[in-house]
Amino acid sequence: MTDPDDQQGRVGLIVPSSNTTAEPEFRAFLPDGITVHGARMSLESVTVSALDAMSDDAARAAELLGHADIDAVAYVCTTGSLLHGPGFDAELEGRLREAAGVPAVATARSVVRALEALEADRIAVATPYTADLDERERSFLEAAGVTVASIDGRGLAANTAIGALTPTDAARQVLGVVAGDDLDAVFVSCTNYRSLAAVDDLESRLGVPVITSNGATLWDVCGAVGLEDELDGPGTLFDHER
């Protein structure tokens, strides 16, 4: 149990209601002195219409997290923060920052910041998503100046099915995506896709940085408030400053 006298920070997470991965992955790589506090937005299926409706709850969730005297807030959903294309992620961060009164990040923008920190211009992407969301993600990343050499989705819409995937599933998918490609990095997309535990092994096998949605968001939100030195996250990304 965390001793209140050892409290170093509080991070607020705004997550889809069906997400079972983000909070455990954040807690696994944060020291005891940084606590995680969640607020949820209604989402059962990862579809364009459901993600669009979910974002309406974001500002209210951020406002409520602000009541807990958090240090920073993260909107922890990849496709939900890129749904409307370039600029929507930054606009979303602004709305959350105003509502919570603290620095705010959104996963899609966190991923772009992570790729910039790694100087990764050409990547492969593994997702659990359907084809229409994969194409929206490709368009978003390429608008940010990143070449997507390949993108592979599992075709899943039910978020509980995504949450049932394991780090082993993620590793197998990544190894299938990157075959023969000359890459600067690999990105495993989706905050409900358990993949952080696979990062170190994948990097040793592939020889390039591997980032995940939760890893990028964790790195970004802690960096936004100067808590990055407290992190012991997996992979190359956590050796870089925000």
From TrEMBL:
The lineage of its organism: Archaea, Methanobacteriati, Methanobacteriota, Stenosarchaea group, Halobacteria. This is Asp/Glu/hydantoin racemase. Pfam families: Amdase. Signal peptide: none annotated. It comes from the Archaea. InterPro entries: Iso_Racemase_Enz_sf (IPR053714), MaiA/AMDase (IPR026286). It comes from Natrinema altunense (strain JCM 12890 / CGMCC 1.3731 / AJ2).
